[in-house]
Amino acid sequence: MAIFLNRQKGLECTITSSSLGEFFECLGDSQEPGLLLLDIELADKTNTLAHLRKIKNLLPDTKILVITGHNHPEYLLLSLQQGADGFFLKGSGLNRLLQAIEATFAGGAFLDPEAAVHMVSYLRKERPIPHNGFSGHNEAPDADLLQPGLMLSAREQQVARGLTAGQSYKEIARAINLSINTVRHYVKVLYKKFDVSNKVQLSNKLKEYVE
Question: Are 60 and 85 in contact (CB under 8 A)?
């Protein structure tokens, strides 16, 4: 992206960084960029949506275009709630990125068409907008696995149902066509979401939740 943007007339990418700390170290005291392309998940696993309002307070005149590979509408809604000026999906192409930047600089609010379509469908189903917690994936959560403030992605739901059915990681992996390591990752996510520390606690939580 940096190479592409530096080739565009009137644009200059002055900073690239893999963490918010590194970004502000490079920024200095007086420099304020016109636009910040902000990935939702950074290399250090920081979810920048949790820091977006703080960034806006520190850089009030900087436009923020959120970029992500996740097209679930909760990401779009939360980005806008926290002060983002636009939402761009990775993989949409560099030419569309340029359009997003131009629209954002012009004072518009660029919403990636694919993400916007998902948001319309999401709102029509009258699902609650989460105020804390993120699914972390681009699959939409099923209504039977929703509770205030907690949302599970489709994959997390599949893993949860497998666990409550007494399946092993290997059996779950085979059933939903994932690797065992990926299943382990989703289990770790469930541990964190339900704030438990062992399999028995997780199993009890999931049984109540699924039922």
Answer: no
Q: What pTM, to 2 d.p., does this model score? A: 0.57
| pLDDT at residue number 131 | 42
Provide the pLDDT for residue 66: 93
Do 179 and 108 belong to one domain? no
| Residue where a domain stops, chosen among 90, 121, 152 | 121
Backbone angles phi, psi at 151, to 5 degrees: -130, 140
Measured distance between the N- and C-terminal CA atoms of the chain, rounded to whole angstroms: 46
Strand partners, 35: 63
Kindly give the parts of the chain with pLDDT less than 70: 29-30, 118, 121-152, 208-211
Give the containing element (helix H, strand E) for 86: strand 86-89
DSSP character string of 175-197? HHT--HHHHHHHHHHHHHHHT--
Name the residue type at position 142.
D
State whether 8 and 82 are in the same domain.
yes
CA 80 to CA 94: how far, in whole Å? Answer: 22
Asked if residue 173 and residue 84 are part of one domain, the reply reads: no
Total of domains in the chain: 2
pLDDT at position 29 is 65
